[in-house]
TrEMBL record:
GO terms for molecular function: dGTPase activity. SUPFAM superfamilies: HD-domain/PDEase-like. It comes from Ottowia testudinis. Keywords: Hydrolase. This is Deoxyguanosinetriphosphate triphosphohydrolase-like protein. InterPro entries: dGTPase (IPR006261), dGTPase-like (IPR050135), dNTPase_2 (IPR023023), HD/PDEase_dom (IPR003607), HD_domain (IPR006674), PHydrolase_assoc_dom (IPR026875).
Length: 376
């Protein structure tokens, strides 16, 4: 299938920070994807939390399974829109590499710890991982990814950090946050696929955990219609299969909505190339109706799952683990690995070290350094 003119073409990439010889069998975006999959940070995602902490069960999503689901959704939509599938997949697989242990609880705690030292943003941390913290190549730090993949990984960025990044890399991946332009359509798509995957698997994990019931979720209008359809088409179907089939239909509806809405937006804007698409404003989007329904579903999940007393109890302890680890490492930097001890920016080195931890390693370190066992 040929790429659309507004898709990112690897032959026209803005390139890498460090020049490398072409590969005989792969283009630049395919190489980016492969470098991400083989990275240490990607492997660690298997023991990093989504909503439920790693010790709470083997069948709940982790950052790794979430990233794979995002990549699958994003690649399928990219194919329909004639965007670059390999670039879309690379961004999707890398978008959570900078996440801390314990999900958003860990991120929030680390941001508090770093408040006087530049704060902590997980999207910026993902870029740090691929630009600096992976040490796999003899001539440079980082994975040396293309501009287009790095641009997509930096999904959000504060104005302060955008200016700092742009000063170090003028006109680079942070420039769009200053100019008010958009990333590539492939990056926009990976971002939207992240939201689609989140909603679906949080319903699944929430019901599996017992914190939500199918009856509760079926009161949300978006999900209700797919439950009704499933029960009408398959009378007497066991509830677990009703749940799976309803989620599948909801996913399909969102995917087709994105394809139709985005296709119409692209046709109206008619960008002649990828850079024109960046200047055209956000083009990858849900329809207004679907966006409103998803906002209602998200409000339901916040009220009934993310803020459930059981979830809040575990995340409170998770924040404590991160805060206490940060304090100990800052006071006793010799407890860090040698490569982190040698760095002059102690607080940032500690943040990088903690952010790279899996849930279970963070818990083991916390018990070793404090003598107390949390989240047992």
């Amino acid at each position: 299938m040929s790429l659309a003119p507004y898709a990112c073409d690897p032959a026209r990439s803005r390139g890498r920070r460090h020049a490398i010889a072409p590969a005989p069998t792969r283009d630049d975006f395919q190489r980016d994807r492969d470098r991400i999959v083989h990275s240490t940070a990607f492997r660690r995602l298997v023991y990093k939390t989504q909503v439920f902490l790693n010790h709470e069960g083997d069948l709940f999503r982790t950052r790794l399974t979430h990233s794979i689901e995002v990549a699958q959704l994003a690649r399928s939509i990219a194919r329909s829109l004639r965007l670059n599938e390999d670039l879309t997949e690379a961004i999707a697989l890398a978008h959570d590499l900078g996440h801390t242990p314990f999900g958003h609880a860990g991120q929030d705690a680390l941001d508090e710890c770093m408040a006087a030292h530049g704060g902590f943003e997980h999207n910026l941390q993902s870029l740090r991982v691929v630009d600096q913290l992976e040490h796999r190549y003899p001539g440079h730090d980082g994975l040396n990814l293309t501009f287009e993949t790095r641009e997509g990984i930096l999904k959000h960025c504060s104005p302060v950090n955008a200016r700092l990044l742009d000063a170090a890399e003028p006109g680079g991946v942070a420039r769009r946050f200053i100019d008010g332009t958009q990333p590539s359509l492939e990056a926009q798509l990976a971002n939207l696929a992240d939201a689609i995957a989140y909603n679906a698997h949080d319903i699944d994990d929430g019901v599996r955990s017992g914190l939500l019931t199918l009856q509760q979720v079926a009161e949300v209008p978006l999900f209700a219609r797919f439950v009704t359809q499933t029960q009408r088409d398959h009378p007497g179907l066991p509830q677990r299969r009703v749940l799976y089939e309803s989620i599948r239909r909801m996913l399909s509806a969102q995917v087709y909505d994105v394809i139709d809405t985005t296709g119409a937006a692209i046709a109206a804007a008619a960008p002649p190339d990828a850079d024109a698409a960046r200047r055209a404003g956000p083009l990858v989007a849900f329809s207004p109706g679907m966006r409103a329904e998803l906002a209602e579903l998200k409000r339901f999940l916040f009220a009934n799952l993310y803020r459930h007393p059981q979830v809040m109890g575990t995340t409170s302890q998770a924040r404590q683990v991160v805060r206490e680890l940060f304090a100990v490492y800052c006071q006793r930097p010799d407890e860090l690995r040698p490569s982190f001890v040698q760095r002059p920016d102690r607080e940032r080195a500690v943040a990088d070290y903690i952010a790279g931890m899996t849930d279970r390693f963070a818990l083991r370190e916390h018990e070793r350094l404090t003598g107390r066992k949390l989240l047992a």
